[in-house]
Amino acid sequence: MAGTDKRRALIAYHAAGARLGRERDFAALVSLCDGRLRAHARRLTDDAETAGDVVQESWLAIARALPGLRDEGAFLAFALRIVTRAAARDLGRKQRRRAADQGFGEAQPDHVPPPDTAPAAPDLQAAIAALPPAHRAALELFYLEGLSVAEVAHALDIPPGTVKSRLMTARARLRAHLEGETDGQS
Asked: Between helices 23-45 and 48-65, what is the axis angle to 10°?
């Protein structure tokens, strides 16, 4: 936990400097947070290339919005919220494009996400991957990124009660998925 607190303090320090216009602090924020933002974008888009585009667009928006950030300790939730909105805009653009293409009779290939190659807990990974994107994002931000319910709510731009509901539903689905596989193996 101490490592997490140090990381948050370091992010807050660089966010304060970047807010004042110091380029080296903004570069440090990119270094500290880019991986987490990319992971979040990947969860929301199910595509590494799109996630990269979303995060690149988000860093520009973060730079523009940073002077309005009042609590540097909330930088990560602030940045994740910007990524969430950028991913939603990207999805909307793709849906409109797909609808327009279908109007012209052009078929769009189905998107097939690449298989997850991480070796740990394949049953759990499969269960998490089977969750709807909104539930998966809330679950991973809360458990993997260590954000509080309030920070997840801010990052996903939803009320805290919705975060709690999504976490409860996601846990229930994971439990059902894992118990169903366990029962069949006994």
From this structure: 140
Angstrom distances, CA of residue 21 to CA of 15, 16, 33, 107, 140 = 10, 9, 18, 47, 32
Alpha-carbon torsion (110, 114, 115, 120), positive or negative: negative
b/e 141-156 (16+ beta carbons within 10 angstroms → b): bbeebebebebbbbbb
End-to-end distance of the chain based on CA atoms, in angstroms?
Answer: 37
Architecture per CATH, 118-186: Orthogonal Bundle (1.10)
User: Can you tell me which residue has the tokens 């570069």?
Assistant: 27
- Cβ–Cβ < 8 Å for 128, 141: no
How far, in Å, CA of 10 to CA of 29, rounded?
9
| pLDDT at 170 exceeding the cut of 60 | yes
Query: What is the CATH class of 1-114?
Result: mainly alpha
**Could you read off the pLDDT of 32-82 as tens digits, one per residue?**
999 999 999 998 888 899 999 999 999 999 999 999 999 999 999 999 999
Question: What whole-number distance in Å separates Cα of residue 161 and Cα of residue 149?
Answer: 9
